[in-house]
C-alpha cells in the first residue's frame, strides 16, 4: 500500500510507470520543474508531469490548486518562470501558444467565449485554419459531432453557455490536436449536455492524448485512466484513476473540512 | 571635463523631475485605479500655469493666491472630466480616452484664446528673482524655492498615499478594484476623487513650473507627452515607479537640452522604447504572450 | 441640441455604420468627385483635391483602428514619411507620379513596420497612449530635421507631378482633382479588397478573442503587424497626395491636429468602413473650413467639440466597434443582437493574478 501524504507535504515522486514516461519522452509531453509564482504566492511547483500518447490524464484538486496555471503553462498562454517542457522530443518551453497549437497542442477554455462576432461555423473554420486544405473532418462534420450543426449560421455570441462550451470544444478539435487540454469542460453543463460531452470525449481517437482539468468527479471517473492530484501547487499524489479515487487523502481533500464539495460543481 | 559643470543641470533636472512627478502622479493613479487615460492632463497643467502667471503680480499674497487658484482650477477641471467620463461608464476606457482628448483640444483652444499665443511668465516677489550662493555655486532663488516646494509636495503625497485611509483606499483600488467594492466603497467615487486630486496636482505642477519654464501654447502637449512617458516607464499605475521615471526624465531632459538640444526628445522616447521592449512583466493593456 | 434630435442623429449614424455597403459608398464617392469635377469652379476643384490626402490618412487610421482593433493617432508618422519623401524626390527633379507613389508607400510601410514592432505588443488605451507619443514625435521631427523638412518654414515651390515622362506637369486644378481622386479611390479599393473575405474573418476573430485565436495556432502579432504596416503604405500614399495637391508642406500639415482629425474622421465615419472614414474626413474638413470663415483660428475648438459630440452621440462609440464590424453573415442573423454588448472578451482590464 502506498502511504497517504500530508496535504502540505513536499512534492512526492510521481508514481508513473517507466513505460509511460518513456513514451511521453518520445511522442508525448514531459514537463519538469515547472514553477510559477505571482509575487510571493507560489501557485505551481511541480517536479514532473508527463502525458503519453493516448493518455486520459485528469488533474484534480481544490480551487487554487494550480490546475488552470498548469494548463496555461502547457498551452503556452503563460510563460513558465522556471522549468522545462518538451513535446514530441523537442523543447517547447519558450515557444508561443500559437506555435504549440500548430505543433498539435489544442485546448479549451474555462470561460469559453470563442469569437463573439463570428458565426458558429466560422468559429470552427478559424479553429481548423491551419488544416483547411486537408482537414480530417470538415467544419460541418465537427459541428455535427458536437451537436451544433443546426446552429451553424448563428452568431456565436448568442449561444447559451452549454452550446458555447461545445463550440469551444469543436474549435479545439478542428485544430486536429494530438494533445488536447480541457479546462473544466463540464462546468455549467446540464446532465444531458454532460452525457453528450462524455460521448464525444469517449469517441476521440486512441492516439490522442487528453489532459483534463475537472471538478466534476463523474466526468473524471468516466474518462480518466490516470489522475494527478494537485494541492497548493504541488502534487499530493498520482496514480491509476481507480486507486486515486479510493485514496482517503483525496476524499478528505474534497469532502473534509475546508475542502470543496466536488460533486457540487 | 569638470563634474561641476554638470552639477547645476543635475540639480535643475531633479527639480524638474520632481515637478514632473507631481504632474504625472495623478495621471498614473487615475489610469491604474480606474483605467481612465486622461489625455486632457497636459491641458490642466497648462491651465494651472496660465492662471498662476496671470495672478501673480510680484507680491507674496498674489503668489500664494496664484498657486492656490491653479490647484483649485485643476481640481475643478478634474471634476468636470470625472463627471464627463462617468457618463460613459460601461462604454469602455477607449471612449473615455477619446472624450478627454476632445476636452483637451477644446481646453487648449480656449487657453490660447484667453491668454494669447505668447509664452507667459509670472512676476515674482523681488526676493525670488535673485540668486543665492551655496557651496561655491550661484543658484537662482526661484528654482531653489520650487525645488523645496516640490520636495514638500512629493513628501506630503507619499504620506497621504501611505498613511491615511483615503490613500490606502486609492492604492487598494489600483491593486484590486473588486476588493474595494467588496468592503463597501464605490470604486467610481474613488475614480472621481482621484481625477480631482490629479487635476489639483496638475494645476499645482503647472503653477510651480511657470517661473522656470514659462507657459505657452506648446506647454500642454509637452507636459502630456512627458507625463505619458513617465507613466509608461513607471509601470502604468505605480506611483513609486512614476517618481523614479520622473526624476530620470527630468535629469535626462535637462542634461539633454543643455548638451544636445536636437536629440533630447529622442533620448526620452528611445529610453521609453527600450523599457517597453525589455520589460518582462506584462503591463495592463499588453497582449498575452 | 435636444435629446430627441440627438437620438435621431445617433440612429441615423448607427444605421449608416451598419448598413455600410462598401461598394455602394465607393460608387457614391466616385460620383461625387465626378460632379465636383464637372463644375466650372476651379476653387472648388482645388479645395476638394486638398481634402483627399487627409481622407486617405483617415482610411489608413480606419484600417488600424477598425480592422486591427488598435486605436491610433500615430499614422501621421508614415503620412509624414510619404509626404517628405515625395517632396524631396520632386525637389531633386524626379517628377513621375508612379515613382512618387511607390516610394512614398514603401517609406510609409517601412516606418509603420518599425513602429509596429514596439506598438503591436500593446492594446486599447495603452496603444492609443503610445501612438499619441508617435504623433508628437512626428511633429517634433518635422520641425527639427531642417535638412529634410525645411524646419518650421517647411518646403515650398515643389514642382508639380507628371503622370509620365514627357507629359506636361499636373497643374490645372481639375486635373489635379481627378488624379488625386483616382489615386485615393484605387488605394481605398485596394485596402477594401485586401481586408475582405477570409482576412476580414481572421481579424474579426482576433479582435473578438485573441487568446482563443492564439490557441488555434494563429500568429496574432504577425497579423496585426502586417495590417499596421500595410496601413502605413496607405498613409504614405496619402502623404504623396499631400505634396501633389498642395505643392508645399509645413510641419503643421503632419502635426497633432492632423492626427486628431484623422482619428475623429474614423470615429464619425465608423471604424470598419474605409469609405466611411474618408467621408468622415471630408465632412470634418468641410465643417472646419466653413467654421474658419466666421471663427478663424479655432480649428482645435471645433475638432474637440466634434470629438466630444461623436463620443456621446455614437452609441457604443469605438468600444462597440465589433458590433459595427461584424462580417456579413449569410442568414438567420438575429438583428437585435448586432447592437448588443460589444465584446466581453476584449482585454481592456489588466491581467489579474
UniProtKB/TrEMBL annotation, chain C:
Instruction: Name the UniProt key words of this record, in alphabetical order.
Output: Cell membrane, Membrane, Transmembrane, Transmembrane helix
Name the Gene Ontology molecular function terms of this record.
branched-chain amino acid transmembrane transporter activity
Q: Determine if Signal is one of this entry's keywords.
A: no
- Give TM regions: 23-44, 51-70, 97-119, 126-145, 176-197, 222-243, 301-323
Q: Which InterPro entries match?
A: ABC_transp_permease, LivM-like
The protein's predominant localisation is: membrane
**Region of interest called Disordered, as start-end residue ranges on this chain:** 325-353
- Enumerate the subcellular locations listed in this protein's record, separating them with semicolons: Cell membrane
Domain of life assignment: Bacteria
What's the protein called, per UniProt?
Branched-chain amino acid ABC transporter permease
Its lineage reads:
Bacteria, Bacillati, Actinomycetota, Actinomycetes, Micromonosporales
Amino acid at each position: 500500500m502506498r502511504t497517504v501524504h500530508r496535504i502540505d507535504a513536499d512534492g512526492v515522486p510521481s508514481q508513473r510507470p517507466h513505460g509511460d514516461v518513456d513514451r511521453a519522452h518520445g511522442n508525448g509531453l514531459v514537463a519538469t520543474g515547472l514553477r510559477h509564482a505571482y509575487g510571493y504566492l507560489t501557485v505551481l511547483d511541480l517536479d514532473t508531469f508527463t502525458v503519453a500518447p493516448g493518455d486520459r490524464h485528469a488533474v484534480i484538486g481544490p480551487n487554487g490548486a494550480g490546475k488552470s496555471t498548469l494548463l496555461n503553462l502547457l498551452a503556452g498562454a503563460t510563460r513558465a518562470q522556471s522549468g522545462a517542457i518538451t513535446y514530441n522530443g523537442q523543447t517547447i518551453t519558450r515557444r508561443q501558444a500559437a506555435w504549440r497549437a500548430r505543433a498539435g497542442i489544442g485546448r479549451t477554455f474555462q470561460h469559453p467565449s470563442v469569437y463573439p462576432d463570428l458565426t458558429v461555423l466560422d468559429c470552427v473554420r478559424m479553429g481548423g485554419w491551419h488544416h483547411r486544405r486537408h482537414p480530417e473532418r470538415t467544419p460541418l462534420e465537427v459541428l455535427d459531432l458536437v451537436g451544433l450543426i443546426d446552429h451553424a449560421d448563428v452568431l456565436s455570441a448568442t449561444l447559451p453557455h452549454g452550446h458555447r462550451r461545445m463550440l469551444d470544444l469543436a474549435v479545439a478539435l478542428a485544430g486536429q490536436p494530438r494533445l488536447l487540454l480541457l479546462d473544466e469542460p463540464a462546468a455549467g453543463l446540464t446532465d444531458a449536455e454532460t452525457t453528450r460531452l462524455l460521448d464525444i470525449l469517449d469517441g476521440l481517437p486512441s492516439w490522442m492524448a487528453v489532459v483534463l482539468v475537472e471538478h466534476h468527479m463523474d466526468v473524471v471517473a468516466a474518462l480518466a485512466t490516470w489522475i494527478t492530484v494537485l494541492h497548493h501547487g504541488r502534487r499530493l499524489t498520482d496514480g491509476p484513476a481507480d486507486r486515486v479515487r479510493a485514496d482517503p487523502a483525496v476524499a478528505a481533500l474534497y469532502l473534509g473540512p475546508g475542502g470543496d464539495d466536488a460533486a457540487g460543481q | 571635463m569638470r563634474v561641476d559643470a554638470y552639477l547645476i543641470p543635475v540639480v535643475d533636472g531633479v527639480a524638474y523631475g520632481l515637478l514632473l512627478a507631481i504632474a504625472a502622479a495623478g495621471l498614473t493613479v487615475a489610469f491604474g485605479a480606474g483605467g481612465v487615460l486622461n489625455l486632457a492632463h497636459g491641458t490642466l497643467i497648462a491651465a494651472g500655469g496660465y492662471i498662476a502667471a496671470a495672478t501673480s503680480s510680484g507680491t507674496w499674497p498674489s503668489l500664494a493666491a496664484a498657486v492656490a487658484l491653479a490647484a483649485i482650477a485643476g481640481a475643478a477641471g478634474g471634476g468636470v472630466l470625472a463627471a464627463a467620463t462617468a457618463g460613459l461608464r460601461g462604454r469602455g476606457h477607449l471612449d473615455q480616452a477619446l472624450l478627454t482628448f476632445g476636452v483637451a483640444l477644446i481646453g487648449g483652444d480656449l487657453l490660447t484664446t484667453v491668454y494669447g499665443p505668447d509664452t507667459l511668465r509670472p512676476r515674482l516677489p523681488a526676493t525670488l528673482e535673485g540668486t543665492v550662493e551655496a557651496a561655491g555655486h550661484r543658484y537662482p532663488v526661484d528654482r531653489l524655492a520650487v525645488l523645496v516646494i516640490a520636495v514638500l509636495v512629493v513628501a506630503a503625497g507619499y504620506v497621504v498615499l501611505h498613511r491615511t485611509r483615503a490613500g490606502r483606499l486609492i492604492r487598494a483600488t489600483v491593486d484590486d478594484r473588486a476588493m474595494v467594492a467588496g468592503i463597501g466603497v464605490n470604486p467610481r467615487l474613488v475614480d472621481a476623487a482621484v481625477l480631482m486630486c490629479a487635476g489639483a496636482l496638475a494645476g499645482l505642477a503647472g503653477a510651480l513650473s511657470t517661473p522656470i519654464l514659462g507657459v505657452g501654447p506648446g506647454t500642454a502637449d509637452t507636459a502630456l507627452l512627458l507625463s505619458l512617458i513617465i507613466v509608461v516607464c513607471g509601470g502604468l499605475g505605480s506611483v513609486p515607479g512614476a517618481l523614479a521615471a520622473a526624476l530620470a526624465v527630468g535629469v535626462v531632459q535637462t542634461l539633454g537640452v543643455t548638451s544636445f538640444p536636437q536629440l533630447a526628445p529622442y533620448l526620452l522616447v528611445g529610453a521609453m522604447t527600450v523599457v517597453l521592449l525589455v520589460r518582462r512583466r506584462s503591463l495592463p493593456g499588453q497582449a498575452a504572450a | 441640441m435636444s435629446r430627441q434630435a440627438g437620438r435621431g442623429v445617433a440612429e441615423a449614424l448607427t444605421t449608416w455604420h451598419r448598413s455600410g455597403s462598401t461598394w455602394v459608398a465607393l460608387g457614391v464617392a466616385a460620383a461625387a468627385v465626378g460632379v465636383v469635377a464637372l463644375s466650372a469652379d476651379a476653387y472648388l476643384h482645388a479645395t476638394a483635391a486638398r481634402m483627399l490626402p487627409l481622407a486617405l490618412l483617415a482610411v489608413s487610421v480606419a484600417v488600424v483602428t477598425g480592422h486591427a482593433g488598435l486605436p491610433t493617432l500615430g499614422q501621421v508618422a508614415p503620412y509624414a514619411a510619404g509626404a517628405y519623401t515625395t517632396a524631396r524626390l520632386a525637389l531633386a527633379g524626379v517628377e513621375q507620379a508612379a515613382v512618387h507613389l511607390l516610394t512614398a508607400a514603401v517609406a510609409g510601410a517601412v516606418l509603420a513596420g518599425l513602429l509596429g514592432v514596439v506598438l503591436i505588443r500593446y492594446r486599447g488605451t495603452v496603444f492609443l497612449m503610445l501612438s499619441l507619443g508617435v504623433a508628437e514625435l512626428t511633429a517634433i521631427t518635422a520641425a527639427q530635421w531642417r535638412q529634410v523638412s525645411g524646419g518650421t518654414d517647411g518646403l515650398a515651390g515643389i514642382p508639380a507631378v507628371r503622370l509620365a515622362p514627357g507629359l506636361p506637369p499636373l497643374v490645372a486644378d481639375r486635373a489635379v482633382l481627378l488624379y488625386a481622386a483616382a489615386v485615393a479611390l484605387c488605394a481605398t479599393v485596394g485596402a477594401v479588397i485586401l481586408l475582405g473575405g477570409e482576412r476580414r474573418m481572421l481579424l474579426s476573430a482576433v479582435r473578438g478573442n485573441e487568446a482563443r485565436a492564439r490557441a488555434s495556432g494563429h500568429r496574432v502579432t504577425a497579423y496585426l503587424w502586417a495590417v499596421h504596416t500595410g496601413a502605413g503604405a496607405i498613409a504614405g500614399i496619402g502623404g504623396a497626395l499631400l505634396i501633389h495637391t498642395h505643392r508645399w508642406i509645413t510641419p503643421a500639415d503632419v502635426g497633432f491636429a492632423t492626427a486628431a482629425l484623422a482619428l475623429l474622421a474614423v470615429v464619425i465615419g465608423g471604424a470598419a468602413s474605409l469609405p466611411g472614414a474618408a467621408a468622415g474626413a471630408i465632412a470634418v474638413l468641410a465643417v472646419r473650413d466653413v467654421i474658419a470663415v466666421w471663427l478663424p483660428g479655432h480649428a482645435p475648438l471645433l475638432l474637440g467639440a466634434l470629438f466630444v459630440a461623436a463620443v456621446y452621440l455614437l452609441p457604443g462609440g469605438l468600444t462597440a466597434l465589433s458590433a459595427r464590424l461584424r462580417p456579413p453573415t449569410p442568414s438567420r442573423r438575429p438583428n437585435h443582437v448586432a447592437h448588443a454588448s460589444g465584446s466581453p472578451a476584449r482585454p481592456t482590464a489588466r491581467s489579474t493574478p
